[in-house]
Amino acid sequence: MNLIQAAILGAVEGLTEFLPVSSTGHLILAARAMGLSGAAVDAYEIVIQAGALLAVAWLYRGRIAELLQGIVRAHPRGRALLVKLLVAFVPAAVVGLGTHTWIKEHLFGARPVAAALLVGGVAILVIEAWRRNRGGATRFTSVDELTVRAALIIGLAQCLSLWPGTSRALTTILAALLLGATPIVAAEFSFLLALPTLGAATVYDFLKNREALLGPELGGPVPVLVGLAVAAAVAAVAITSFLRYLGRRGLVPFGWYRIGIGIAVFLLLGIQGGDMP
After folding, report:
1. How far apart are CA 188 and CA 41, in angstroms?
2. pLDDT tens per residue, range 188-212
3. Could you give the 3-state DSSP secondary structure of residue 181?
4. Nearest one of 186, 209, 188, 29 to 108, comparing CA atoms
5. In 3D, which of 253, 251, 248, 243 has the Cα closest to residue 56?
6. 80-106: burial string, b at 16+ Cβ within 10 Å, e else
């Protein structure tokens, strides 16, 4: 992996991590398109998520300060949010630990990703149509109003995102919308939930594959650092832009985008007569 490829993957990660389009799916497709594959590349695609988490940590530093205060001393608002994030985090952590190896062996490919992109795109269109036509009642207008039960349901929905191409942002945002959260609240809770979810996955993959990640297979530690830095910068812009866009237009364009990308990948695979390398 050269530094240009590392920067491209970092940009893809930062741009797509918090959008309902699947960062893992886009990273797999981008890496395969550049001829990159193997266990080290798969681990790289997960570890550079830490760069996107840095963007969340900076943009929501006030909230994170409250969470820390909720841990070390009495801070009701911070402690309540901490409990909800932990409740939402546990289901995917348990399921992910049990299926991690199987997922990497069977689902880290262009065909499974394309299928997940299509299904997720259709889900967006169906749920957004339901919200607009039936006018689901708004129950949560701030992250603090979310209940522990709602957090658990969002956490259970997050388990679906373990299939690459589904999107953690997609499953958590759609679940929150179905529960009655506003689009902004759904997105912000999804961003904050990324901290324990992606943080745990990143640490796990780094510890498990640190020799491959820092060794000659990827070109040493520099490509990893480049990917992290680019992912952080791009994610900061993507998050702020997404929140403004979401308030005006909703998720429908992302649904059509996912469907278009999924169809395009299947067509390409049909032309090639197999999976992408």
Report:
1. 30
2. 999 999 999 889 888 888 888 888 8
3. strand
4. 29
5. 243
6. bbbebbebbbebbbebbeeeeeebeee
For residue 157, give the nearest of 180, 181, 130, 176 by alpha carbon: 176
What type of residue sits at position 84? Answer: K
CA distance 160 to 191: 17
DSSP string for residues in 67-87: HHHHHHS--HHHHHHHHHHHH
Backbone phi, psi, residue 65, to 5°: -60, -40
Q: How many CA atoms lie within 13 A of 202 on its CB side?
A: 16
Measured over the CA atoms of residue 197, residue 96, residue 17 and residue 249, the dihedral's sign is: negative
pTM: 0.88
| 181 DSSP β-pair partners | 140
* Whether 209 contacts 39, CB under 8 Å: yes
Rounded to whole angstroms, the Cα distance separating 76 from 69 reads 9
From CA 31, how far away is CA 36, in angstroms rounded?
A: 5
Residue with tokens 């902004």: 184
Q: Which residues contact 90 (CB under 8 A, 6 or more apart)?
A: 155
Concatenated DSSP letters of 86-115: HHHHHHHHHHHHHHHHHHHHHTSSHHHHHH
- Rounded distance, CA 177 to CA 68, Å? 27
Among 6, 16, 24, which Cα is nearest to 160's?
24
DSSP summary character for residue 60? T
- pLDDT band for position 172 (cuts 50, 70, 90): very high
Q: What is the pLDDT of residue 277?
A: 45
Per-residue model confidence as pLDDT tens digits over 78-126: 899 999 999 999 999 999 888 878 887 878 788 898 999 999 999 999 9
